[in-house]
Amino acid sequence: MTSSETLAPLGDDLFARAGLEQQLQIGPQAWLLRGLALAHEAELLADLATVLQQAPLRHMVTRGGRRMSVQTSSCGAWGWTSSPNGYAYSAVDPQSGLPWPAMPDSMRQLGTMAAQAAGFAGFAPDSCLINQYLPESKMGLHQDRDESDFTQPIVSVSLGMSALFMWGGLARSDKVQTVHLHHGDVVVWGGQDRLRFHGVRRLLGPAHPQLGPRRINLTLRRARG
């Protein structure tokens, strides 16, 4: 958070063994796990490149027909899709007509591990939404509510450039906190925090040494119960 960050232990030495430096509680059931993905960086980036060769990034449109500034793709059994008719999960990539690429073990295992340490044991993601942000991209406040089971958490992995993450309340008008997210950070939220509004205000800082002037966000979800 921009003003004063209160660090709290998770009560589990899993992240200490993985080299995690900080755990920041941003809600009753929401955690920012600083640098958790760094130990898996090489495998994640290699697997990401393979997925995007099969299902390239593209600009989708909002429910109102406005072109999104972020580019998206998906992997896993279900991919998140958007059109003027609304938002939905689909087993088929509408651009290719083929099933989405399988979710790599590196992404699935990271999501399960992060969720378990944040108090959500047994999380088995079946969808990974891939969002690419360029310096001019942003994501307005929204809720993740297209899934069938809200008891399942959300796991969000940041790669590349840093970003200002907006963390709101259960109503769009609630006060919004700003959290700095950096390469390798993982945010997990669920339970009473599951339907919080959130978004990305803008990117920060220089281009990333490997990914260049962009940020990749992996959002791991359980789309179907």
How would you characterize the overall build of this protein?
The chain has 225 residues and is α+β, with helices and mostly antiparallel strands. A 7-stranded antiparallel beta sheet has the order 1-2-11-8-13-6-3, with helices on one face. The protein has a 4-stranded antiparallel beta sheet with strand order 7-12-9-10, with no helix packed on it. Residues 1-20 have low confidence and may be disordered. It has one domain (14-221): Jelly Rolls. The radius of gyration is 16 Å and the shape is globular. Strand 4 and strand 5 form a beta hairpin. The chain contains 3 helices and 13 strands, in the order αββαβββαββββββββ.
- Secondary structure category: alpha+beta
How many helical elements? 3
Work out the oligomeric state of the chains in this entry.
single chain
Order of helices and strands: HEEHEEEHEEEEEEEE
Going by CATH, the homologous superfamily would be Alpha-ketoglutarate-dependent dioxygenase AlkB-like
- Uncertain runs are 1-20
Tell me the CATH architecture: Sandwich
- Note the gap between the termini: 33 Å
Number of domains as seen in the coordinates: 1
Q: What fraction of the residues are assigned to beta strands by DSSP?
A: 25-35%
Give average pLDDT, whole number. Answer: 91
Major sheet strand order: 1-2-11-8-13-6-3
